[in-house]
Amino acid sequence: MCSLEKKGNVFLLTLTGTDDHRLHPDLIDSISAALRRVRSESTSSSALITTAEGKYFSNGYDLKWAFVDIARQQLMSRKLRRLVSDLITLPMPTIAAVTGHASAAGFVFVLCHDYILMRKDRGFLYMSELDIGFPIPIWFSALVKCKIGSPAVWREVVMKAAKVTGEVGVKMGIVDSVYAGVEETLEAAIKLGEELVRRNWDGKVYAGCRKTLYVELLNKLGSDETVGDYGDDEANKTLSKL
């Protein structure tokens, strides 16, 4: 599912295997467990890098599994929203080293990181919902608006379902930097992580600043109207305390 390594004070979380890393509840649980380890093993100044093996960073929700019934759709949505909350409240800088395609919920997962680094020879970011005939939930929209500054880019990403390469992503203000290939992207991510660790920021203060920036997103995570998921009281109570 995923592995977790620690290089000094930099954690490297890798989605393992050569499949398309669809966000099935089992994979989400594996990532969430890794983030709990990161929280428990982190020092006062740490950083997290998330990357993936193979052609895909993540190809989004596991729709084949989810569309058996509404309960599965609701479960998958709840787990992803909790994962997003975990990332937004993580007490350290976060970096996505995107070395393959990231589509739909996979793109959302990428956007939850503070920094996005991509390889320029392959891979794209793709909000595919329009092409496959599904509306995006309000919380997806809140994330896009928090992380992408231009309404013109919102239109390209959401209303045109553009496949955004690394170099185009830099021009759009979505991607921070691009590199020749997998090794170069990971090396740059580790270098950035080490630079951020050296700033010796207080992790709780860092997370508090991030939560303030993304308060609109956090306020929307309690429900997902696209699957009729309004009744998870325990999740709502947890999110309301953020």
UniProtKB/TrEMBL annotation:
Entry's EC annotation: 5.3.3.8
Reactions the enzyme catalyzes: a (3Z)-enoyl-CoA = a 4-saturated (2E)-enoyl-CoA; a (3E)-enoyl-CoA = a 4-saturated (2E)-enoyl-CoA
Gene3D superfamilies tied to this protein: 2-enoyl-CoA Hydratase, Chain A, domain 1
Keyword presence, DNA-binding: no
Metabolic or biological pathway: Lipid metabolism; fatty acid beta-oxidation
Protein's name in the database: Delta(3)-Delta(2)-enoyl-CoA isomerase
Entries under InterPro entries matching the protein: ClpP/crotonase-like_dom_sf, Enoyl-CoA_hydra/iso
Keywords associated with the record: Isomerase, Lipid metabolism, Membrane, Transmembrane, Transmembrane helix
Isomerase keyword on record: yes
Family membership noted in the UniProt record: Belongs to the enoyl-CoA hydratase/isomerase family.
Species whose genome carries this gene: Capsicum baccatum (Peruvian pepper)
GO cellular component labels: peroxisome
Entries under CDD domains matching the protein: crotonase-like (cd06558)
GO terms of biological process kind: fatty acid beta-oxidation
Membrane spanning residue stretches: 95-117
GO molecular function: delta(3)-delta(2)-enoyl-CoA isomerase activity
Classification via Pfam families: ECH_1 (PF00378)
